């Protein structure tokens, strides 16, 4: 079956397109169900069904294509001869639309092998559509009967009256129009906060089950969640939150004794709400079956707990056997791999505290007032200028030997005014500097959030991991109030989670081990954050058995990472650094450190990514502390400003080894490539211009060599720059997204004199430096267009079709540019040079026929060959397309066989 | 143009006693003791009121009636545009697309990205904007014949345009200001305009003895957005 070769990237496009088209369908069908419905809605629905059919066929979803086709033919049957939709047909159309909307959002695995329920739904829909269409056509043939509703008694139709909606077990999802998505962003952010509070409260509750005070905050969180979900109409969430609330009320009143299993089901329900709330809007409107089943499962678990099904004590005693708690750590584990779920849109909402905002407003108002004060100052200066001019002319007019006393007095006056104004200006300047400094500090501070906000999930994580491992541990968090930049807080979640899991798993001994070492049974894991010396220090410590340095040293030798002699000479700190090597201790022969290396390299990468460093402190038998040293904010970095090719660039100080100034005679060119000596190491000398791909210097450089040394470990590079301008703090600004990822550049900034500065990404530059040092010539830039390749403009409003056709054409060796509709295509074709245009027919703004007509009317573009591709494949559609000026008119189905490619090649007079 | 008829200036009244003996005169008016300023005197107030009751000048009402009787759409339609010069050519860029005009600054080159048309980043009011060489896009020379300038002192400027949320900056050799161009006087783009430039031009106007090409700002924005920057 075709579905076997489903492509994930295309499917994503298809899903979003299907969601958009089913919204159109839903709206049209909703209007058709009322008196207001007419041919306009039928045409809209018809186009949507056609588009769905085409898209589904392209991605190989034959089931969906088949049903969409049946919908399209049913709809077109109502157009000629014109007749109203029968209620049966409307019901069948609605059912089919729902099936399509649901089916298209299924995960890929379910699409490739549809479940029996899905197949059954499909068959039912198809059957009903065909029956209803047949019945309607039959009734239309009886001209005597004008009644819009064909009564089933009149025609012996096989259609059962009002067909029940064919569906999978789940109840029908609410129609999309019912949900109010204007508040979705707010709801999401609220759900995030409330679920975090919920999880934290529940974990605390577990430690203190008898305490009704601990239940209250959890209840409040569940209640708020319910309210928020009700506002935007997420019934699934409302239902679940309501049941959670019931359970909590019961527990508070003593009717229900919460046990570990009950806590698990509460936590699971919270998890479900959290992940469900972050689903894309279309899925919230029509939740996929997997979601509804998961919700039903959570609900059932909670109800079990509520119905007082006493949790079996055996189950509670052996937590390691219960597979459920293992799931949450895994979900958390996945986090570092998956990129942010939704790319931050330019209009994304950022929370900032009301107090901070009002302080900002106060400061902004003050700067405004301060700026206004300059206006009278200007007036004073003007007056002074006039006085001075007057004085000069008086002086010139003065007769020799005249009395100079009035002139002298005038000069004194001017001087006095000048003195006063100078003083005024001095005050104003000082106030201005102070004020803008304050404003800046406040803006930075508004980006800071308390550390506690980012660690709400951790008590839960430690509990779950320990429960799986059969260990006992308590997480102590200190410095919850420590302010941390929100970007860093986000980035910290993954590495801290990793370190905490490590601490539970490998740091702490099991109960027997702890008893033998004379330690209390419950282990303590400490997570603390504080500011020290302008850095944010976050530490994860455990009171476990620590790392044995002598055994680590043995292992370094064993793995062949260093000779025995070298290993013996390494300091403890240096030995510990080996833990950060990727996959260092995967062969778990040394029990104390087994697994320590897994993921520590990832932790280090993440921490370095935000410009920080990791250190390990360990004491055998007493515990281990991982200390992360991080910058307080990411929006301001300390950097070294340098001049390369006459323009300003900056190296973040955190990634800089040192600065080098040396006479050119010290360059060692004896080993093929130039080397300089840096602190006893050899560093490869690379021209910064070459590293950034800038044109080389025309003449050989003279004078002293100025270089910036970057790198680490055993590999250093000296980047020769024009000049060093000094150290400064820069406010980091992201590069314009239109530029994409610029090699070697991480971001931009503005220097004090207003000139733009590019901030160099040292990590990104390193591979290029290695190549340059090894003397590998630069490959020609890959973006250079191949001169002989014919260029094709592809105009289609369906992303799926666009991507499919683009792939076909690029694979065939064409240079393809795309446009999203006729108007966009018309712009593109005028400014670019193309050899051929491929265009769809039905598009918003400017349709394909009008687009081609414009091409044919333009003197310059008149002879450009055009291939028109449409799902409309009737003879009259063809004729219309060709009449508008298309050279070839093809059906969309020809995209998948080679008719399309052959047509393109023959128009370009190329043999395929 | 369709400006409303002007009311002629007020004739100096015969009895403007305030100029003669009042506070603007020699202050000999006996009433001054009671009112202390002509502004408080009923004579002055009555003269002020009389201004409103003047008869309209001849033909004034007729002129207004004509203006108001002309249907709105038959009045001359104009396009408001920024008049600027790129090398040897005067251009008009629709004002709606212009965000700001600032002093010229050299763009900072972006490695692997800057080229013939995209030149680099430029700081405009604290924001880094993409700068383009529109002159290169239009295939225009840098040199301009003498006497082409409209301003007495010519300053090159940086023009920031914004369309559909996307901004782009380009350097203009001279910015004259904005003008309302009557669409009825638009002529077709002459064949002398050059192939690249004529794509972006909607038509030609005569403006202060210079020939002015009206740019299609939407097409210009689309062309710059389509440049393969990454």
Description:
- The complex is a heterodimer of chains A (912) and B (230).
- Chain A is built from 30 helices and 22 strands.
- Helix content of chain A is 50%, strand content 15%.
- Chain A is globular.
- Chain A is of the alpha/beta class and 912 residues long.
- With 230 residues, chain B is of the alpha+beta class.
- Helix content of chain B is 21%, strand content 30%.
- In chain B, strands 8-1-2-10-9 form a 5-stranded mixed sheet. Chain B has a 5-stranded mixed sheet with strand order 3-6-7-5-4.
- In chain B, strand 9 and strand 10 form a beta hairpin.
- The longest helix of chain B is centred in the N-terminal third of the chain and has 11 residues.
- Chain B is elongated and about 85 Å long.
- At the A-B interface, strand 16, strand 17 and helix 27 of A face strand 4, strand 5 and helix 7 of B.
Provide key terms for this protein.
heterodimer; A: alpha/beta; 5-stranded mixed β-sheet; B: 230 residues; alpha+beta; 10 strands; elongated
Rg measurement of chain A, Å? 36 Å
Percent strand of chain A: 5-15%
The secondary-structure class of chain A comes to alpha/beta
Question: What radius of gyration of chain B results from the CA coordinates?
Answer: 28 Å
Biggest interface, which chains?
A-B, 33 and 29 residues
Q: Report helical residue fraction of chain B.
A: 10-25%
* Total strand segments of chain B: 10
Look at the structure and give the mean pLDDT of chain B.
87
* N/C terminus separation of chain A: 28 Å
User: What fraction, in percent, of the residue positions of chain A are helical?
Assistant: 40-55%
Brief summary:
The complex is a heterodimer of chains A (912) and B (230). With 912 residues, chain A is an alpha/beta fold. Chain B is α+β, with helices and mostly antiparallel strands.
Task: Itemize the secondary structure elements and their pairings.
The complex is a heterodimer of chains A (912) and B (230).
Chain A: H1 8-32, H2 39-59, H3 62-77, H4 87-104, H5 108-112, H6 116-140, H7 184-207, H8 212-232, H9 235-252, H10 260-277, H11 281-285, H12 289-306, H13 313-317, H14 327-334, H15 354-397, H16 405-446, E1 448-450, H17 458-469, E2 473-478, E3 483-485, H18 486-507, H19 511-516, E4 523-532, E5 535-542, H20 549-558, H21 564-569, H22 572-577, H23 600-609, E6 613-619, E7 623-631, E8 636-644, E9 647-652, E10 658-662, E11 675-678, E12 681-687, H24 688-691, E13 705-712, E14 715-720, E15 723-731, E16 745-750, E17 756-760, H25 762-773, E18 791-795, H26 799-811, E19 815-819, H27 822-831, E20 836-839, H28 848-857, E21 866-870, H29 875-884, E22 888-891, H30 899-907
Parallel strand pairs in A: 2-4, 9-17, 12-14, 18-19, 18-20, 20-21, 21-22
Antiparallel strand pairs in A: 1-3, 4-5, 5-7, 6-7, 8-9, 8-15, 10-13, 11-12, 13-14, 16-17
Chain B: H1 17-20, H2 32-35, H3 42-52, H4 60-69, E1 78-86, E2 89-94, E3 98-103, E4 118-124, E5 127-132, H5 134-137, E6 157-163, E7 166-172, E8 174-182, H6 195-200, E9 201-207, E10 210-215, H7 217-226
Parallel strand pairs in B: 2-10, 5-7
Antiparallel strand pairs in B: 1-2, 1-8, 3-6, 4-5, 6-7, 9-10
């Amino acid at each position: 079956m075709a579905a076997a070769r489903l492509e994930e990237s295309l499917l994503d496009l298809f899903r979003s397109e299907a969601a958009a088209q089913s919204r159109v369908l839903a709206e049209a069908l909703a209007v058709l169900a009322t008196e207001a419905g007419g041919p306009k809605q039928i045409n809209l629905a018809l186009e949507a069904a056609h588009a769905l059919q085409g898209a589904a066929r392209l991605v190989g979803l034959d089931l969906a294509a088949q049903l969409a086709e049946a919908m399209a033919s049913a709809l077109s049957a109502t157009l000629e001869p014109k007749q109203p939709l029968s209620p049966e047909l409307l019901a069948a159309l609605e059912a089919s639309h729902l099936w399509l909307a649901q089916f298209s959002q299924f995960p890929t695995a379910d699409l490739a092998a549809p479940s029996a329920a899905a197949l059954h739904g499909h068959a039912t829909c198809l059957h009903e559509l065909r029956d209803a269409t047949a019945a309607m056509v039959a009734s239309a043939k009886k001209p005597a009967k004008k009644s819009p509703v064909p009564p089933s008694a009149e025609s012996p139709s096989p259609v059962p009256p009002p067909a029940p909606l064919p569906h999978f077990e789940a109840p029908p999802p609410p129609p999309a129009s019912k949900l109010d998505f204007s508040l979705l962003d707010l709801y999401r952010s609220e759900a995030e906060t409330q679920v975090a509070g919920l999880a934290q409260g529940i974990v605390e509750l577990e430690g203190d089950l008898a305490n009704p005070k601990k239940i209250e905050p959890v209840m409040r969180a569940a209640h708020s969640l319910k309210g928020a979900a009700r506002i935007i109409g997420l019934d699934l969430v409302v239902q679940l939150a309501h049941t959670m609330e019931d359970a909590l009320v019961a527990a508070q009143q003593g009717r229900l004794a919460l046990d570990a299993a009950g806590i698990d089901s509460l936590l699971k329900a919270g998890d479900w709400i959290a992940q469900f709330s972050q689903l894309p809007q279309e899925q919230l409107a029509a939740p996929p079956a997997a979601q509804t089943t998961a919700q039903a499962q959570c609900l059932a678990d909670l109800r079990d707990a509520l119905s007082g099904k006493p949790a079996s004590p055996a189950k509670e005693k052996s937590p390691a056997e219960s597979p459920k708690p293992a799931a949450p750590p895994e979900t958390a584990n996945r986090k570092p791999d998956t990129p942010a779920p939704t790319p931050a849109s330019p209009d994304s909402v950022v929370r900032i505290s009301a107090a901070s905002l009002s302080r900002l407003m106060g400061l902004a108002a003050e700067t405004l007032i301060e700026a206004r004060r300059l206006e009278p100052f200007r007036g004073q200066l003007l007056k002074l200028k006039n006085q001075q001019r007057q004085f000069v002319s008086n002086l010139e007019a003065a007769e020799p030997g005249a009395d100079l006393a009035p002139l002298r007095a005038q000069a004194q006056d001017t001087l006095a005014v000048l003195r006063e104004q100078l003083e005024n200006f001095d005050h104003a300047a000082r106030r201005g500097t102070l004020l803008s400094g304050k404003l800046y500090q406040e803006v930075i501070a508004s980006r800071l959030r308390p550390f506690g906000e980012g660690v709400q999930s951790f008590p839960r994580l430690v509990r779950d991991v320990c429960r799986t491992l059969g260990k006992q541990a308590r997480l102590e968090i200190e410095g919850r109030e420590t302010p941390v930049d929100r970007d860093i807080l986000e980035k910290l979640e993954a590495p801290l989670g990793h370190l905490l899991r490590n601490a539970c798993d490998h740091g702490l001994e099991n109960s027997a081990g702890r008893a033998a070492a004379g330690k209390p049974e419950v282990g303590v894991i400490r997570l603390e954050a504080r500011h020290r010396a302008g850095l944010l220090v976050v530490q994860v410590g455990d009171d476990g058995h620590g790392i044995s340095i002598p055994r680590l040293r043995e292992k370094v030798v064993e793995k062949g990472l260093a000779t025995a002699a070298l290993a013996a000479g390494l300091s403890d700190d240096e030995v510990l650094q080996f833990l950060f090597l990727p996959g260092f201790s995967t062969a778990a022969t040394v029990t104390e450190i087994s697994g320590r290396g897994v993921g520590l390299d990832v932790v280090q990468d993440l921490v370095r990514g935000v410009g920080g460093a990791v250190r390990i402190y360990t004491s055998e038998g007493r515990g281990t502390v991982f200390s992360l040293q991080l910058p307080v904010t990411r929006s301001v970095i300390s950097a070294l400003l340098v001049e390369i090719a006459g323009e300003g660039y900056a190296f973040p100080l955190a990634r800089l080894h040192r600065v080098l100034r040396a006479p050119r005679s010290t360059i060692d060119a004896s080993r093929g490539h130039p080397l300089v000596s840096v602190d006893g190491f050899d560093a490869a000398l690379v021209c910064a211009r070459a590293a950034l791909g800038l044109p080389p210097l025309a003449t050989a450089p003279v004078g002293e060599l100025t270089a910036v040394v970057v790198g680490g470990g055993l590999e250093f590079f000296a980047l020769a720059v024009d000049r060093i301008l000094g150290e400064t703090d820069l406010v980091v600004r992201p590069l314009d997204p239109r530029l994409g990822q610029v090699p070697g550049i991480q971001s931009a900034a503005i220097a004090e004199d207003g000139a733009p500065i590019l901030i160099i990404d040292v990590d990104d530059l390193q591979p290029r430096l290695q190549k340059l040092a090894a003397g590998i010539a630069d490959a020609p830039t890959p973006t250079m267009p191949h001169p002989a390749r014919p260029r094709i403009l592809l105009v289609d409003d369906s992303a799926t079709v666009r991507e499919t056709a683009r792939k076909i054409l690029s694979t065939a060796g064409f240079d393809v540019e795309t446009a999203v509709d006729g108007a966009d295509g018309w712009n593109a074709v005028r400014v670019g040079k193309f050899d051929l245009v491929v265009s769809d027919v039905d598009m918003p703004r400017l349709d394909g026929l009008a687009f081609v007509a414009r091409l044919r009317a333009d003197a310059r573009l008149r002879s450009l060959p055009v291939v028109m591709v449409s799902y409309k494949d009737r003879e009259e559609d063809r004729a219309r397309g060709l009449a508008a000026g298309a050279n070839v008119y093809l059906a969309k189905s020809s995209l998948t066989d080679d008719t399309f490619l052959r047509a393109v090649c023959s128009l370009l007079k190329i043999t395929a | 143009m369709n400006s409303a008829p002007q009311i002629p200036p007020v004739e100096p009244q015969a009895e403007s006693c305030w100029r003669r003996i009042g506070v603007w005169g020699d202050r000999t008016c006996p009433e001054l003791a009671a009112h202390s300023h002509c502004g408080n005197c009923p004579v002055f107030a009555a003269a002020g009121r009389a201004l409103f009751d003047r008869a309209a000048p001849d033909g004034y009402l007729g002129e207004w009636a004509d203006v108001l009787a002309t249907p709105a759409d038959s009045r001359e339609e104009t396009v408001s545009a920024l008049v600027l010069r790129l090398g040897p050519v005067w251009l008009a860029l629709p004002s709606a697309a212009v965000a700001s005009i600032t002093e010229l600054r050299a763009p900072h080159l972006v490695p692997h990205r800057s080229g013939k048309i995209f030149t680099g980043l430029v700081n405009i009011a604290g924001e880094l904007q993409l700068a383009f060489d529109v002159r290169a896009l239009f295939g225009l020379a840098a040199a301009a014949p003498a006497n082409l300038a409209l301003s007495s002192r010519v300053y090159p400027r940086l023009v920031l345009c914004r369309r559909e949320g996307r901004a782009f900056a380009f350097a203009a050799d001279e910015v004259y200001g904005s003008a309302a161009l009557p669409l009825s006087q638009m002529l077709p783009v002459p064949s002398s305009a050059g192939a690249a430039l004529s794509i972006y031009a909607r038509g030609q106007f005569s403006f202060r003895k210079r020939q002015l090409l009206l740019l299609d700002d939407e097409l210009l924005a689309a062309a710059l957005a389509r440049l393969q920057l990454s």
